[in-house]
Amino acid sequence: MKIACILLASGFGRRYSGNKLLALWEGVPLYRRAFAALPPALFSPAVVTSQYGQILVDAAKAGYLPIQNCHPWEGVAAGIRLGLQAAWRSDGALFAVCDQPNLTTDSIIKLLNAFQESPDRIHALAWRGKKGNPVIFPKALYPELMALSGDTGGSAVIRAHRDLLTLTEVSDPAELVDVDTPD
Fold it and tell me: Please, what is the angle between helix 30-37 and helix 53-62, to 10°?
């Protein structure tokens, strides 16, 4: 079974007042921490969509397929569409962001295993029943994801298919915390 990883790294970081993906967390840029938590060898394919040249160059060096997002102002949906175009042959697509510095590969592997057991369902990491990111969508929902626009992300598809959602609990709630401000 082929599961794609689509790492979304195109945001403007408006709440952060700049490109937060380059910000250091324990001495490592946020985007590189995401690369470490989501090793490309686990996926087929592993894609990074970004408007930032440095991130795309480093993504290629790390084994990801780098895809230039030339329309980042359109919102998250632009990155979703770009990533899915590259991952169309996969059975499922894991969507992740680069601002969860405590995410672990162990949790990603648990999520991948859950999807392999039920590949017709949506799978998301969670803490005590509260959905977080990343999320894996089955191929049957790719057309709905491709139809998204603006800053509407996969949550809209999840809301339309709540009955398909399966949660995989992380062992530490810090894994699901995202960085929105320099504080």
Answer: 30
Contacts of 105 (CB under 8 A, 6+ apart): 36, 37, 38, 39, 42
Burial of 79 (0-12, 13-18, 19+ CB in 10 A): buried
CA distance 71 to 33: 25
pLDDT band at 13, cuts 50/70/90? very low
CB atoms under 10 Å from CB of 54, counted, come to: 13
**Look-up: residue for tokens 């590949």?**
119
Q: Give kind and range of the element (H or E) at residue 131.
A: strand 130-138
Element (H, E) at 165: strand 165-169
Give the C-alpha separation, 169 to 128, whole Å.
Answer: 7
**Tens digit of each residue's pLDDT (9 = 90 or more) over 141-165:** 999 999 999 888 999 999 999 999 9
Please tell me whether residue 162 adopts helix, strand or coil conformation: helix
Instruction: Kindly report the pTM of this predicted structure.
Output: 0.92
Instruction: Say how far apart CA 45 and CA 42 lie, in whole Å.
Output: 9
Nearest C-alpha neighbor of 168 from the set 118, 98, 99, 102: 118
